[in-house]
Each structure stands twice: as structure tokens, then as C-alpha cells.
């Protein structure tokens, strides 16, 4: 009886009958699955009535030999990578732009004297009439900065301290520096702004406009050097600075100060008439981690009240103090508003200035 491994007809002549003889032509399962031509099954041939007993597989190149699980995993990886690239490009990244997507919005309320004329003050002691209880101090001493050691959930004490110091320098440059106030200098203010806002700042100087975004007086307190001079380099200040964290990437610093300037007409003798001009200035700064590291600020909001001024004076380029002796309105209200009069800024409001407390 023959060997069970041999063919029924016996071993072919010249053959050994060993499995090793056929090993080179035995195809493994992966080779069979990768074949481009496969034979139809018996049921397919009976039910389909196919004219050919074979079918062609769609070629997939090198991927055709990969197992199904590997192909599925590869597809998922491609989809994940595509999604990551898409959202990485389209989602806003404030940190990368340091203030990208923000611009200053400003508003000014002009304060006009309630009655009578703009009074003169003693030029040797222009601030002598201020009440001692009002809390005014000289210059930055009146800023009311937050206590040292302040921190937030995502900004360390060192970062908050650096941010507050940058805001302090911005306030000094934009509210106290004589070169900015009456000499037309702007570089000290611009240098402290984040790059994303510098273009808007430049436009506010080249083409100042009463559109709530391009008023030079929204960025800084400034007077026309041809009309106004300082009677004293001292500015009286009262107010405070506060720090909050609206989100993990933003440090919000807000300042609210009342500033009193001693001014006189430009070009007159040093003993010319002196008056006080008051500006209440409320600012909001947003600083990213990038802003803090670069010692720059993003100024978001600027709201001002300034007077005594005339309601009809344009204030986008310079603040316009009324000179000593000029009368305010005879009524307790600034008057009616004509919505058809486009010569008057729509955003610039006017109110009556309350008398100072003595």
C-alpha cells in the first residue's frame, strides 16, 4: 500500500514524492489575496451566469498587499493629520500674533462749563484750589497701582509685575510726558504698543478721524502745540489700576484716572492766564503671555471725559481746552442734537462739567 502523502497513481517518474519538491510553488494566503485574477466560486458561476470563470481585482499598487486592519489604521491616520492641519490653519492664534484681531475702540465726552466763564487760577500755585480730600497726587504717585506680589491662575507674580510696570510706563508716556502732551511727540507711546496695533496708531496720527477707532486722542492726551502750553509740568492724578484674568491666555489691566493739567495759551508770556483742564481717562489693556514677555500692551478700550471744552470743537487730533474768559452755554444742557448734521461727530458726546469740590 502506498504512502498516504503520495498521489493515487503513484509517484511520478523522476520525482521523489517529497513535499519539498512542491514547496517552491505553494502560495501563502497573503499572496493569494494579493492576486489580481481570482476564480469565481461555484455558486457565483451557477447563479451569475458569468461568461468568464474569473474576475479581475482592482489594483491598489503596494497598498493592495496590506492587511485590511493596516489599511484602516492608515486611513484614520491620514484623516487625523488632515483635520489637525485644517484646524491649525483656520483657528485663531492670539499668542502668535500678540494682540491679532484686536483694535482700539475709543469714545470721548466733551465737558463744557455750566455757566459763566472759564476761571483763571493762580499761576504760582495752580492746583491750590483742589480739595485735599480729593486724593490727588503728583504724577504716577496717583496711579494707585496694585499691590506687589499680585498673581493670577495662569500668570505668575513676576509676569503680573512686568505687565503692570509696562502699563505704568504707557500711562506715564500717554498722560504725563510733556513731550507727548504739548510737543507733538508720539514715539514713546507707539513703542509700547503691540505690533498688531501700531498700524492703527499710525493711521490715527496721519488721518485722525472721529470714528471711534482712529482718534489720536484715544491713544494719548495731547494738545495742539500751536495753541496750548503747560503752565506746570506737574499733573495731578487720582485713580486706580486693577488686574484680572478673563482667560488662561489673557491678562486684563484696567486703569481709571482723573488727571488735572495746568494750561495756558501757547506763545504768550510766562505770566499769561492759567486754567485747569480735567481729563478722566478709563483704559483697558489686554496682554497675552507674548505681550508680557515683550513689554508691550494691547490697548482695547479708551473712554474719556475732558473739559472745559466747546461741544462743537473737533477733538480727534488734539484736545481743545477753552481759554480763560470764554463762556460756557447759558443753559444747563448742551443743547439739541441734529442727526442730519454730519459736521458733528456721531460718537462724540457732550455734557455739562460739574463745578469742582472745594
Automatic annotation (TrEMBL):
Residues 1-21 are annotated as: Disordered. Residues 1-10 have a biased composition (Pro residues). Keywords: Membrane, Transmembrane, Transmembrane helix. The chain crosses the membrane at residues 70-89. The keyword Transmembrane helix applies. This is Uncharacterized protein. It comes from Kitasatospora kifunensis.
